[in-house]
Amino acid sequence: MRVVPALALALSVAVAVAVVAFAGPVPERAAVTNRPISVKSGGYIGSESCQACHPGNYHSWHESFHRTMTQVPNRHTVTGTFEGSLTSDGLEYRLHQDGDRFTVSVAGGEPRQVVLSTGSHHMQAYWLAPSGPGRRLGLLPFIFLHEEQRWVPRVAAFLQPPRHNGGVDESGMWNANCERCHATQGRPRVTAPDVMDTQVAEFGIACEACHGPGEEHVSLHRNPWRRYLQRTDDEPDPSIVNPRRLPHDLASETCGQCHSVWIFNSDQTAENWNEHGFSFRPGGDLSKTRFIQRRDHMGEGDPERSSQQAVTPDYWFWSDGMIRVSGREFNGLIESPCYQKGELSCLSCHSMHTRGDASAIAKWADDQLAPGMHGDQACLQCHDSIGSRLAEHTHHAPASDGSRCYNCHMTYTTFGLLKAIRSHEISTPDVAASLATGRPNACNQCHLDKTLGWSAEHLAQWYGIAAPELGELERSLAASVLWTLRGDAGQRALMAWSFGWQPAQRASGEGWMAPFVAVLLDDPYDAVRFMAGRSLRSLPGFKNYPYDFLASRERRMTARDGVLKLWGERGNLRGRTESALLMEPGGALRLDELNRLIQQRDNRPVMLLE
Amino acid sequence: MNSRSTAKRDGDPAGPAKSEADAGSNQTERAVCARRHFRFGWWSLLSFLSVGMVLESLHGFKVGWYLDVSNETRRLLWTLGHAHGTLIGMLQIAFAVTVNAAWGGTSRSMKLASNCLVAAGIVLPGGFLVAGVVVYDGDPGPAILLVPLGALLLFVGVLLTAWRRQATP
Q1: Are strands A112-118 and A101-106 parallel, antiparallel or unpaired?
Q2: ipTM of the assembly?
Q3: Tens-digit pLDDT profile for residues A211-233
Q4: Which end of chain A is more exposed for a tag (fewer CB within 10 A), N or C?
């Protein structure tokens, strides 16, 4: 008789287990109607499926900024302070947080829910629930900067000509553009004019973005025997892609699917992406579906190009075709001799996974460099012979900044995230290229107090690089002075950053820099002013100098004049008397010459699309 | 079926005396077996207590080889090895008490149960511990194959003990 209740209990437990196992969570498609949704299809099954077998790799990915590139907002993922209000161009944006729900009211209107966020490393942008049918998002015209812990207008966070911030951008930018690389296997799914039913496999850049769809792999490897056999097999597992086991070009294309300037190579490919997502899979040939902007094609039409808007070089490239914006490192890599003649790949220096304790993983997450790749080892792994004769090669003390491979061959000539970033086109210092393109060369970006002529002379003497013909100004004034005062916004941005770069401060001295940084405090471009303010605070005597890059013109000029006055009064801050730095023999600044050079500023609009 | 009932059924005239001798022999065997398991159980407890102290030290010194998320399989296996070893050590003592006070089976079944439990006490936690030395991401090392063997031995040992235990000592 006691068997019956025991059987009933066992049956109940079995039914409960079956319900939990097979019913699963409520599909997001049904539960969420006000934003793009995650739908697993086409063999994509999501990163959770990887965790059980690859806990270490899952964990390091989970701690990476790749994962958090797009997030559904909650109190743990939102970094901005949602309280009070922001005002821009006469519109008031009231921010409100209620637990995990974040809303924005524009000009006293109905609160709109924040439904997605972009970024988590340096800054975070916010996307609002659609104002119309479908899942097309609006963009809050403010960005929250993490280091500064402040909101800034979105237009101020990018290098672009001064312009109005505007209201909420309803153009569906996330659905049509951002999801390409800030989510895994996104598809915009334009269903009607201005209506999008956007889906992604997973928000953020997840495992399958680099390893390809995992369904077959997971299914096959539920069998433990297969798992153990695979451990002892030297051949790659055909059911999944491991970029590290790919040839260097294909491995790099895995990263290049996002980190490049490209367009679809045909209208059909673009249409297919709209409905089904990218047809490129890691390990495949990127050129089959995309046109990667190459130096050879710069400024030319391409017969294979689709009818989409052609790439506008000025937005991304220096005039000689070197990439000048961040996040597009693949364009630089593929133009590098180490890639073209050698086997350099992204994974030569970077690793998408790491091991170690929390602090080690947090440090790695900043740039995802592989162990030991922060220094010369990255280059010496191939150029090992140089390591034993470093000083002979660099003509700098072996322990100095001038002997670091990166500093000469990967200079800070790309821009993004409100800072200069190392170029990923491996190059040699070249004054002729600086003259032709306006791009700072490695010598003058570190030796900010030296002229182009000085660099050309040393490059000729040390390496036999032919010195180009230079004008009077290039021979008499420090290159940084010329780029700061006469350069275009892109050059000024790099200089504004370089004045705060510690190796440059060590090589050039800091005392003379303040007047030139002061000039940039009143630059027309928000991003230039932002970096000038940051660099100013790194100079002696100005650590706590009050300056707001978004303040009114009048207040900015007051701040600029204040810097000049303070610098003039404190002779110990100067210490330099070179005419190359516009200094009088007594150390005073040649203000008339400075203002004359500012009048020659290259005011062509510069817009860098990160 | 125990030895006493066999003697009666065979109608051996020397039955009672032999039964007494058998009983004496059985008691000796049970005492030997109990001592074996007391000894093995307490030494097991000491061993796995020591393993526990080592594991605690790994926690104390935050040893990444044990604590990092990438090594969670090792941590799980060694925790399981420690827990199983300790519990099976206690089981050895419980078996010794049972053999002494309430064994109702033959000496053959007692020896079989004893051997199964001793082997399980080595193979099962040992399998976990050795399998944790070299792990493959989420998969343990090949020594994990010892664990199902140990589990089978443990099952047989416990089954025999449960089956041959006297209803009332």
Answers
A1: antiparallel
A2: 0.73
A3: 999 999 999 999 999 998 998 88
A4: N
